[in-house]
Amino acid sequence: MSFVFKSIDHVQLAAPKGSETVAKQFFSGILGFQEIEKPEILRKKGGVWFAFANYQIHIGIEEPFAPAKKAHPAFQVDNLEALKMHLTKNEVSYIVDKDLPGANRIYVHDPFGNRIEILEWI
After folding, report:
1. SS3 14
2. Quick one: DSSP state of residue 90?
3. 103 near 80, Cβ under 8 Å?
4. Which of 67, 99, 104, 115 could crosslink 72 through cysteines, CB 3.0-4.6 Å?
């Protein structure tokens, strides 16, 4: 083949209209992602963008909105136990899943019901 995939540029999750403030509280305030500026031409569509390391998460407005219940991004972390304590302190529930050999992992849902996997390889 004459083409090569290099990396994931971003992951987009959907959210209902008017949910930017709630998205900022969760993705930036709780998860610690940095909010990044959307290009001016795209701002009129609503939504908000975040980044961590070399990755971006785009929260896009979708009407009618339906959360992703099965499809999900998976984020790798260091010190999952500390994250679980942080989530509990911030009243964010999570589900522990032990089905993936070699990994500790949890599932959380963003404020809009989208599923997010977070794992730490052991």
Report:
1. strand
2. T
3. no
4. 115
Rounded to an integer, what distance in angstroms lies between the CA atom of residue 43 and that of residue 37?
9
Please answer whether residues 27 and 57 qualify as being in contact, where contact means their C-beta atoms are separated by less than 8 angstroms.
Answer: yes
Q: What 3-state DSSP class applies to 65?
A: coil
The residues, any chain, with a CB within 8 Å of residue 4's CB and separated by 6 or more, are none
Q: Give the list of residues 6+ apart from residue 77 with CB closer than 8 angstroms, or none.
A: 83, 118, 119, 120
Beta-strand pair 10-15/55-61: parallel
DSSP-derived secondary structure letter, 113? S
Say which residues have a Cβ less than 8 Å from residue 7's Cβ, sequence separation at least 6.
Answer: 54
Confidence of residue 1 (pLDDT cuts 50, 70, 90): confident
Tokens standing for residue 108: 């959380």
User: Distance between CA atoms of 33 and 51, rounded to whole angstroms?
Assistant: 6
Place of tokens 């569509």: 45
- Digit-coded pLDDT (tens) for 101-121: 999 999 999 999 999 999 999
